[in-house]
Amino acid sequence: MNDSLFHVLNGLAGRSEAGDTLIIFLTNPFAYLVAVILVIFFFHHKDEGGGVRDGVVILSAAMLSWFLALALKEFFAEPRPFVALEDITPLISVSALDGSGAFPSGHTAFFASVVGSLYFYHRRAAYWFAAVPLLIGFARVAAGVHFPIDILGGYLLGLAIGFGVYAFYHMRTDSPSGREREGAL
């Protein structure tokens, strides 16, 4: 299943210049655009001073996901498709990817953690945002730098960390001593 889905998605690359441009855009530049949109959303969202709190929780979850994904890549050391399969030529530059494993996808974990923590603050935005890590992930499969299982692993890792960071923050701030600490900020 993993191999057949990989070949279907990776088969989208190399068909047209416009398609390749879209895949390349979705692998990385799209992530920066989404991050800017998210920052703008928090600055313009009306929420009784919660925007900073929301941003801290969401950014903390995202950074934790990124670093944990990097650590897990070392632990699992799964090769990337262009290393594991002779017939795969990556669509994006591989210089930064040469020494790193593929599982789990750090890009997908990062943005899925944003979805996981955003869900508790802004459900409607989280539902819309849930497609972002999947678009990025599928584009990275199409580009030949991840297998579908890497994307699934990153998505689940990110969601779990997003939920966990939110729960940890509120466990600390919703306790009587936590409310006193938060009030002192």
TrEMBL record:
The chain crosses the membrane at residues 22-43, 55-72, 101-120, 127-145, 151-169. Pfam families: PAP2. SMART domains: acidPPc. Keywords: Membrane, Transmembrane, Transmembrane helix. Residues 54-166 form the Phosphatidic acid phosphatase type 2/haloperoxidase domain. GO terms for molecular function: sphingosine-1-phosphate phosphatase activity. InterPro entries: PAP2/HPO, PAP2/HPO_sf. This is Phosphatidic acid phosphatase type 2/haloperoxidase domain-containing protein.
